[in-house]
Every structure is written in C-alpha cells, then in structure tokens.
Amino acid sequence: MKILKTIIISAIIGLGIGNLLNLSLSLIGGYAYQPGVPTFLNQFDSFNQAVLIEFILYAALGICQGLARYIFQIEKRSIATTILSHYGLIMLPLVVVGAYLHWFPFHLWGIAGFLLIASLLYLGIGFFLYTSSKKDVETINAFLKKQATQLHK
C-alpha cells in the first residue's frame, strides 16, 4: 500500500512539475503559452493528442523518480554506489523523456548540456537535503545528550 501511495503522489508531482516547467519556459521565453515544445507538438494531428502523451510521460517520469528513493533502503551497498545508482535512476528516464519531448537538440552537445544542467540541479537538491538532514540529526543528538545528562543527575 505504501508503494501505491508513492506511485500516485509521484505521478501527480510529475504532472505538476512538467506543466509548471512548460508555463515557466513560456514566461522566460517571452512567448504565448504552449503546452509543450513546438517541434514535439507539431508531430501530432491535434494538441490534445500531444498533451495527452506529455501528461502520460510526465506522470511516468514522476513515478520513476519517486520510486528511485527506495534505492536508499538497500543496506548492503556503499553510499557511493547507492548515490550513483540513484543518479542513474533519475537521469536515464529524464534523458529519454527529454529527448522524446524535444527538450534539447538530440546530438552530443545537446544531450551533454541537458545532462550538465540536470546534474547541477541534482547536486543542488542533494546538497539541500543533506544539510537539512544534518541539521535535524544535530538537533536530535543535542536533545538526546540533554536527556542523557538529566538521567545521570
């Protein structure tokens, strides 16, 4: 049941982030909102068809990335192996979906540029989560130390 909840929430988050990015890129680019990259949208007979495929891919991407967190529950791996596995589970579907939706030019430099930007975002999010968790651990440890000191009095 916990995995089903993760799948549903991750799909919704994927849909939200995908659509928010479409809107953000339209605003940044200074052009009228389009539900996707024009070269992707123009492959279809209707925008509805294209947007439906986009929504399915956004949800699938959200699910893949949401489930990737479970890699950290495998205890027999080193932290380096776990992080590299997680990175791969995040980046591979991202690049495949990005290529299909025409997020970047499909050549070596386009893929490399996309991976660089996505990797920097991955590192930034990872750093934020690390510092946040470290602060929580320090707070808990201080509380436990205070409790232990009070017990020994």
Give a short overview.
Helix content is 78%, strand content 0%.
Describe what this molecule looks like in 3D:
With 153 residues, the chain is mainly α. It is built from 5 helices and no strands. It is elongated and about 75 Å long. 78% of the residues lie in helices and 0% in strands. It has helices spanning 2-29, 38-41, 47-67, 79-100, 108-151. Pfam families: DUF3021. The chain crosses the membrane at residues 7-31, 51-72, 84-103, 109-130.
Set down the secondary structure blueprint.
Elements: H1 2-29, H2 38-41, H3 47-67, H4 79-100, H5 108-151
Task: Provide tags for this entry.
single chain; mainly alpha; elongated; 5 helices; 2 domains
Mass-distribution shape: elongated
Order of helices and strands: HHHHH
**E-strand count:** 0
Question: Helix coverage percent of residues?
Answer: over 70%
Count of alpha and pi helical runs:
5
The biggest beta sheet reads: none
Integer average pLDDT: 90
Low-confidence stretches: none
Structural class: mainly alpha
Tell me the fraction of residues in β-strands, as a range: under 5%
**In the residues, how many domains can be counted?**
2
Radius of gyration: 20 Å
End-to-end CA span: 46 Å
Report the oligomer.
single chain
